Amino acid sequence: MTPHIEAEIGDIAKYVLIPGDPNRATYIANKYLEEARLVNKVRGELAYTGKYKGVEVTVFSSGMGIGSMGIYSHELFDVYDVNAIIRIGTAGAYKEELKPYTIIIADSSYSDTNFDLESGSEDIEIINSSFELNNIINMTANIRRIDVITGRVYTTDAFYTDRRNYDYFINKGCIATEMETYALLYNAKKFHKMASSILTISDNLITHEEMSSEERERRLDDMIVLALDSIIKLEK
Ligand code: HPA
Questions:
Q1: Is the CB of 104 under 6 A from ligand 1?
Q2: pLDDT tens-digit readout, 20-71
Q3: Bridge partner residues of 152 (DSSP)
Q4: Count of C-beta atoms within a 10 Å radius of residue 81
Q5: What distance in Å separates the CA atoms of residue 170 and residue 167, rounded to the nearest whole number?
């Protein structure tokens, strides 16, 4: 149906969770969705559509980076007319107190990428998440007693970087770094849709603490449930 997605229009729900990793999409579909069916496997990016608490939801892996997230979020909003996307992923923290497993809700993304220039002939440093969606996520976190920190993330083009002067990004208001949120929020703005990112801290760039593999799954479950319980609240 698009150069990158084989799903038919009706195969993608109006509400989409978008992890980076296809294996995580499979994990979420198996554990949380009823009647989940595989609707995309082009290039190994897996998408499943099923029901969560009676509401149709799609889980779709974005792959890594602004480029890949830019393609999938564009096609999901523009061609499949998706209403809302929540990215669920990991981030590296710039603040000592943000320990591994801390859950961050991105209220905005800063990036010096050229994605905005290429995609929309404009130069925007900071893009906000959906205020409405973030309110719902915060409310849901409260109800479920999941601790969250809200803040800005730096969306970088390069995972392996020589830019170790984190003060530059901290002065831009960023509390953590990752690689996809800017493209998602940019496309939501472009197509007048809703988007946000919920991120779990996987590593702290100041203290060098990291997630342990044993606890990774259970801790990521808090973020997944928070995203699922939030996105279905958009269904009126
Ligand atoms: N840099 C970029 N992306 C990331 C990081 C990081 O340190 N940790 C998790 N995603």
A1: no
A2: 999 999 999 999 999 999 999 999 999 999 999 999 999 999 999 999 999 9
A3: 108, 174
A4: 12
A5: 5
